[in-house]
Task: inverse folding
């Protein structure tokens, strides 16, 4: 790389960001990773295989506070803003999730504008696209937006939708900021270490055999390898400016994921049958993550990713492979 100015990568200790940091370093970039606490710096260095040549540095930032943002962005060539809360179950107060996501995005964009850093890539989500009343058989595209009043709109779904909308609103008012969003589905695949958090907890739960049946919930799946590659593609290709990049290979339903894992690991007691709604309602009284997912049970979902696969000439890792890589990581403890 001839440009030695760093890329500010927020939330560098996250599941997605660690893979992005690794791939950026492999390509010769300088990476300035943000952490809420410097206590995790050594963890990140180990996970991303820090080459030790000074190209990986850290700054301390908090999504909910202004302190440090201006200094963090100074002298950077671009920002990859991945930091955002991602719990499996909704908090008691949804604003505890929404406010950090929205305010953190605004802080990143404001800091970029103030420092004259015009290139920003934001990690959004497929959940900012998928949930709205649509005709039967409709396949969602990157032009679609989630309706935050939809019955399926959990606190997490609202947080990602409102944060991305805030980003595009900011760009309308500040057109010098060149924004691309990457909208992943459930990010599977091989983590960089064993701190994979919520992203693989769903696969971990299915593998555990805890549930005798599985809720019939649609899940768009993508491999972390692709999520990272699309962030870097967005960074490097001017034709992605102004785009929302759908980062998903396919939509799989939970029983189908169970069937795939059961076939791969026949000695494990992995559920494959869809659970009846009445049973799920009863179980949801005691399981907060299931309660959050209840509005999505039986929900139809189709996607059209041709803007990514044809428009950007991108080929995804197959969803089945991404799921199997996750299972291998769960079993091995990454």
Result:
């Amino acid at each position: 790389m001839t440009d030695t100015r760093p890329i500010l990568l927020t939330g560098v200790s996250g599941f997605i960001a660690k893979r992005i940091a690794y791939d950026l370093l492999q390509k010769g970039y300088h990476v300035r990773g943000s952490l809420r606490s410097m206590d995790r710096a050594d963890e990140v260095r180990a996970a991303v295989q820090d080459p030790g040549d000074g190209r990986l540095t850290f700054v301390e930032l908090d999504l909910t506070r202004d302190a440090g943002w201006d200094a963090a962005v100074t002298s950077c060539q671009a920002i990859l803003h991945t930091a955002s809360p991602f719990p499996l179950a909704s908090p008691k107060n949804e604003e505890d999730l929404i406010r950090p996501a929205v305010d953190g995005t605004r802080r990143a964009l404001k800091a970029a504008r103030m420092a004259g850093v015009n290139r920003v890539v934001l990690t959004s989500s497929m959940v900012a696209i998928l949930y709205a009343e649509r005709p039967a058989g409709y396949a969602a595209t990157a032009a679609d937006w989630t309706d935050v009043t939809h019955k399926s709109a959990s606190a997490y779904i609202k947080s990602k939708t409102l944060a991305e909308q805030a980003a595009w609103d900011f760009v309308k008012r500040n057109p010098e900021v060149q924004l691309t969003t990457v909208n992943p589905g459930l990010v599977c695949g091989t983590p960089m270490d064993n701190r994979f958090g919520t992203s693989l907890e769903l696969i971990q739960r299915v593998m555990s055999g805890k549930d005798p049946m599985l809720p019939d919930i649609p899940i768009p799946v993508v491999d972390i390898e692709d999520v990272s590659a699309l962030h870097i593609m967005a960074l490097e290709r001017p034709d992605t400016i102004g785009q929302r990049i759908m980062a998903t290979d396919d939509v799989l339903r939970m029983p189908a994921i169970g069937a795939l894992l059961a076939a791969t690991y026949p000695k494990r007691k992995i559920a494959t049958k869809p659970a009846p709604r009445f049973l799920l309602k009863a179980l949801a009284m005691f399981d907060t993550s299931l309660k959050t997912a209840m509005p999505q049970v039986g929900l139809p979902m189709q996607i059209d990713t041709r803007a990514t696969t044809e428009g950007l000439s991108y080929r995804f890792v197959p969803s089945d492979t991404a799921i199997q890589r996750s299972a291998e990581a769960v079993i091995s403890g990454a």
